[in-house]
Every structure is written in structure tokens, then in C-alpha cells.
Amino acid sequence: MNELKTEYNTVENESIEITLSGDEVQAIRELRKKISEKTNSIDDENQNDINQVVVKPEISISRSLDDDDSYEIKVNNAIGQIVLGERVINIAPKIGSNHFIEIYSKNKNKYKDLAIYKNQGTADSGDLLFLILFDFLEGVEDVVKKGIRKGYKLVNEELKFIKGHVNVLKTTRNLLSGKLAIDTDYEEFSIDTPLNRLIKSALFEIKTLHSSESLHVTSSDFIETLVSKASKLYNHFEFIPDYLASDLRVNVDRNTKYYEQALVGAKNILQSYGAEVTVGDITASARMMNTFMVIENGLRYFLNQNLPEKFMCNSKPTSKNSRDGKYSFNPDLVFGTIAENIATGDIKYKYWTSQNKFSRGDLQQSITFTNAYKVQKGIIIGFSDSSFNPSKYHDKIGDIDFFVSTWDTGKDPSKASQKLLEQITDILKS
Description:
The chain is of the alpha+beta class. The chain has helices at about 20-40, 95-105, 115-120, 125-145, 170-175, 195-205, 220-235, 260-270, 290-305, 365-375, 415-430, and strands at about 5-10, 15-20, 60-65, 70-75, 80-85, 85-90, 150-160, 165, 180-190, 275-280, 280-290, 320, 330, 335, 340-350, 375-385, 395, 400-410. The protein is built from eleven helices and 18 strands.
């Protein structure tokens, strides 16, 4: 791998201006197309879910107004990197890498911070994605060490003998057509489970990274170590089928708690996006992770682990259906007990300041959720600097109180998390 690359650093949702050749422009446009095709194909099952806001990673490119050879490149809703031959564009989180790492680490209670991140020292923004991949591998190692868990799966098979439940109609059709086959459904104890399918598919994504010579990280040994570790772990899951879109909704229970670190990483990896193209003499690639997924999962887990039991029910609340059954309402958070919900929470990966103020338009989705769940409080959670005062945006619409709570990126990350927890606790107690 070529280490002598020119690096550019930017932040998600912000433009960076770079002089590009015609081949480089075309390469970025083709990467944009491939990324767009993948984002549009992921988890189409959620198309009727009211909570599925468009927060998909995307690449945009436009000609600069000042220079015909200069272009503005922007990556929305993702971190990672774009490699253009000998040039690398690193995309950092808009809330800062230290705060992003803090929130990512909230997905699990095993680590205060990413262990690999500490070991590597200060990594550039492009490396951050790969450090997260390494953290996933540490979780898979723990799963393998403690034992890959089996589960029951439903199998449909035509047999010469009765096993499990006989499908009478299909069996009758077989017999009438002269086919001596009994159509049966039965349960099989197998490692072919949603959890294991997700891990297997995520391991495959990492183990095939070496197929691209355009990948770049600060350390030349990092990718090789990553690929080698993934390949060894993959051997334990090799004969498990690939994951299904519905598998992304699975969560751990008390029997699979030790899968948690691996599961969080697998979901993030499988909902990230990669592409590679060659235009003329330019080999270009993009690997990006959806930042919204990391933020939502991290904050949800953090609140569930730290709020009093009476204020938080499930890590992912049960959805409510509309009266006509066409839509489901699935807020990010439902506060309260399973028997009695007291508030809904809506996580916004937005950054508010005294100049870039909270918009009343952000209330609309929260209003929908509070009405669906028939609760008296709605909480909107976002990010801010220290100049933003969330208490100013308390609003009352009818009998429902709406509150804004923020993670203050002007504070130390650990203090920011505690301040957010205090704000939400006070709101729920009031």
C-alpha cells in the first residue's frame, strides 16, 4: 500500500474545495451513484415507518464559483474517507471525534472508550471508521471465546416421514400428483440465528477489505491486522447464511448479553457504505459509516443504562400502528414503564447554537409521537455548544409539554453525557 498520499480533512455536512482533474470528477460522480444505489436498497421493509427520516449518507460535488478546475465536495450524514488515486479526503464527525467516540462507547458497558483508539494514540478522522471495525472484532472474539449460541429456527422441508407440523394442503397436492412427499414445518436447533448471520456478514465485509489497494489509513499495518483478524474469526461463522434485512431489528436478551458489543458493531458495519471505481488512471474508493445510526444507538443505550427504572422501558420501544394500519409510529425512545408510558423522545443529529437556533419544525415529528402514545411530554434531544440554552425552547401545545435537551460539545465528553442525563431526568420528574 502506498503511504505517500496527500491528505485533506473535512467534517460531515461541510464542503471542502479541491482542484480536480476530469477523471477525478467523474470518479467521484460514479462513487456518488454507487453509494446512492446502496442506500436506496437498504431495509426497504421500513418504508411505512413514520420514524424513518432520510438520514442517508450521500456524496455531493459541484463546480466552485471561483475556479473552473476547483470543485466543492461534501459528504452528508457519514464519517470515513474518499480515496482518489494518491489523494485522501478524511471526513470527521460534525460533533468532534472525541464526542463521537464517547457516544459510540455508550453502546456497551464493557469499555469507557474504544480500547483500540487509546492504543493507537491520536488517529486522524479517516482512521476512526477502521478503529470502530477493530472494536467490533474484539466483540466477536469475546463471542467465540464464550461460545457461539444456537437457537431454534423454522425449517420447511418435504420428507418421506412425518416430522413436526404437516402442511395438509401441500402434502395432499403432492400425493394427488403422484409425489410421495410430506410437506412439513419443524424447528431445528442451529447456529443459523439472526445474531450469527449479522456477525458473519459483517466479518465478510472486513475480511474482503484487502481487495482494494486504494484503502488508506495512517498505519500501514492497520488494515493487514484488521483483515487477518476478521479472516480467522470468519472461519467460525463461514457456513452460516448471509443476513436478512429483518435481522437488523434483533436485540440481545439476557442469554445473549455477551453478544452486545459484536451486535452493535455488526449493525453499524452492515449499514455503512462502500464503493470502488476506476476511471482512466484513477482508482477511487469510498468507505463511510452512517453517523446517525451510531448516535441514535449510543444515546438510547446510555439512557437505558442510567435513568431510573421507572423512566425507561425497552432499549427499542414497541411501535404503535395507525388506525388504518398503513403506518407505524416508532419513536427513538419511550420513557416510562411498559404498563405506563410518560413521554416520548426524538433524537436529532443536529447541532444548535445561539445563531443556528432550534427550529419549530423539529417539533412536528415529536407531536406525532406524543399523540400516538397518548403521553403528556415530548423530549427532543440534539447537540449544541455552550451558548445554547435548551430550557428556552420549552413549549406547550394543548395538554402536552415539549422539551429540548442537548449534548453540549463545548464540555468534556464525559461531563456532556452527565449533563444530558441530568436534563432528561429533571424533565421526567417534573
